[in-house]
Amino acid sequence: MGIVEDKIKELMEKEANVREMGGSKAVSKQHERGKLTARERIDLLFDPGTFRETDTFMKHRGTLFGLDKMDIPADGVITGFGQVNGHPVCAFSQDFTARAGTLGEMHSKKICKILDMSMKAGIPVVGFNDSGGARIQEGVDSLSGYGQIFYRNAIASGVVPQISAIMGPCAGGAVYSPAMTDFVFMVKKTSYMFITGPDVIKAVLGEEITFEDLGGAIAHNTKSGVAHFACEDDGQAIERIKTLLGYLPNNNMEEPPRVDTGDSPMRTDPALDSIIPDNPMGSYDMRNIICSIVDNGEFYEIHELYAMNILVGFARLNGRTVGIVANQPTVLAGCLDVDSSDKATRFIRFCDCFNIPLLTIADVPGYLPGSNQEWHGVIRHGAKLLWCYSEATVPKITLITRKDYGGSYLAMCSRDLGCDLALAWPTAEIAVMGADGAANIIFRREIQAADDPEAKRLEKIGEYKDLLYNPYIAASRGYIDGVIVPSQTRPRLIEALEVLCTKRETLPPKKHGNIPM
Fold first, then answer.
1. What would the mean pLDDT of 8-16 be, rounded to a whole number?
2. pLDDT of amino acid 1
3. Which of 175, 181, 287, 367 is the least buried, fewest Cβ under 10 Å from its Cβ?
4. For residue 12, is it within any domain?
5. Is pLDDT above 80 for 449?
6. pLDDT tens for residues 364-416?
């Protein structure tokens, strides 16, 4: 055997050693916890045979506390690039079997290099987080590593899509990187995120709480809104990531991919003509409208378990990706509040970053009243919706199905905030406020002077409704561009999108605005 053959054999042996990760015992423990290994996750994400690993042989250079005697394969993180459903993607995957995937100087350097490659190449990046946190033996080098990752997350934001999958522990400073990315997936029962764990909380505050209740997938999907998806296992999370990537462009300079869905752009749905309840206080599931008008009824919902009074997610209209924001009448009557405003704002800004047209479907009676909302800053949070719709330059189409009152009418992408085309169903009610309150104000003296004040009040409420509870006054002023038959909604939206897909709009030059955070 010649020298070259010896060198190749040595390379193969070194690669095989690294692929053993933390060893068979550690891999078995990972599987016993219901988790895939770092390399199994990579294999599931990428098209077979396309992943190319980078920095396979990178090693830590710590010497304190016995680190100099520790071998950590790949320094606890696998990095590289490949194809996902035929499209280029970068990824890193922390390896809990190798010293619990702790992050040190070289571990972070590998992640930073793949983030840099993602930005230079203009392709999405997916991160699998499964780590015991900072490698404390490396001291401030570990802290510096986190800081360098955070910096790149911020710089990459709005340049390439960033997706985080929490597939194990993610605690302390490690949680901030996923929180800075665009979408966070968590796995039920096996992943958690928190700044300080249950033991510290008990010692400092005397509060007893489990890992799952404090920072599990359901907690962050329902209470904090930190996570966008709660998945049953690693495999489901990875499949949902792959589906999400299919809706997105590679970077901010590209348009989203257009696909042939096989659904006729001229398809109509007569069921929409009767979906609005006769009782104005009645509710209906907005998802039924969304699924009726989008291609093949496929709606990829984001933040499904959080602030459920508003729906956000991706769909396609004649093969084009659209971002949908819609009030949900079945929850809080579709009122806007602090959490729903934040949820919608974040999604709208993502769509604007990546050239994804926005479809807003409005059925909203107003902002949720009450001292709790006021004290939690509903004014400031509600203003974010006004801000982000005004700032967005992508095509913006609004459909009003029923109630659209007051400030919430403006907040759901009215003409005045830059909507490019506003359509309404004949059932639309566009007014400053509800009829009961309006009649009490406008006709107060007449009601008080009447022989039967309650009968007079009901009469005036009916008069107000007859005058204003329709879309035609708004249409006569040009605030509504068209009143359409509900069953014709899909073709009308597709026609509008086709016209607006070449929209070009620029904002005044500035470093950046100061959004009310």
1. 87
2. 63
3. 287
4. yes
5. no
6. 999 999 999 999 999 999 999 999 999 999 999 999 999 999 889 999 999 99
pTM summary value: 0.94
Tokens linked to 340: 């729903």
Radius of gyration (Cα) for the chain, nearest Å?
Answer: 27
Tokens of 277: 């309840």
* CB-CB neighbours of 168 under 10 Å: 23
Which helix (H) or strand (E) segment holds residue 422: the answer is strand 421-424
Sign of the CA dihedral 59, 108, 201, 65? positive
Residue 33's pLDDT is 93
CB 164 within 8 A of CB 201: no
What are the pLDDT digits (tens) for 201-242? Answer: 999 999 999 999 999 999 999 999 999 999 999 999 999 999
**What DSSP string describes 89-122?**
EEEEEE-TTTGGG-B-HHHHHHHHHHHHHHHHHT
Mean pLDDT value across the chain = 93
Q: How confident is the model at residue 451 (pLDDT cuts 50, 70, 90)?
A: confident
Span 426-435, pLDDT tens digits: 999 998 777 7
Report how far residue 167's alpha carbon sits from residue 42's, in angstroms, rounded to the nearest whole number: 13
- Give 343's contacts (C-beta < 8 A, 6+ positions apart): 225, 303, 306, 307, 310, 312
Shared domain check, 73 and 192 = yes
**Whole-angstrom distance, CA of residue 15 vs CA of residue 9:** 10
Closest among 343, 366, 363, 510 to 424, alpha carbons compared: 363
Beta-carbon contacts of 118 under 8 Å, excluding residues fewer than 6 positions away, are: 90, 124, 125, 156, 160
Do residues 281 and 233 share a domain?
Answer: no
Q: Strand 125-129 relative to strand 162-166: parallel, antiparallel, unpaired? A: parallel
Residues contacting residue 110 through CB under 8 Å, at least 6 positions apart: 54, 55, 58, 74, 75, 77, 79, 92
Domain that holds residue 456: 435-468
Residue 253 lies in a domain: no
- Let me know if residue 263 belongs to a domain: no
Residue type (1 letter), 165: A
Average pLDDT for residues 457-474, to the nearest whole number? 80
- CA dist 492 and 485 (Å) reads 10
| Alpha carbon distance 233, 466 (integer Å) | 54
340 plus 481 within the same structural domain? yes
How would you write 333-353 as a 3-class SS string? Answer: HHCECHHHHHHHHHHHHHHHH
**C-alpha separations of 9 from 21, 49, 169 in Å:** 19, 21, 37
* CATH number, position 165: 3.90.226.10
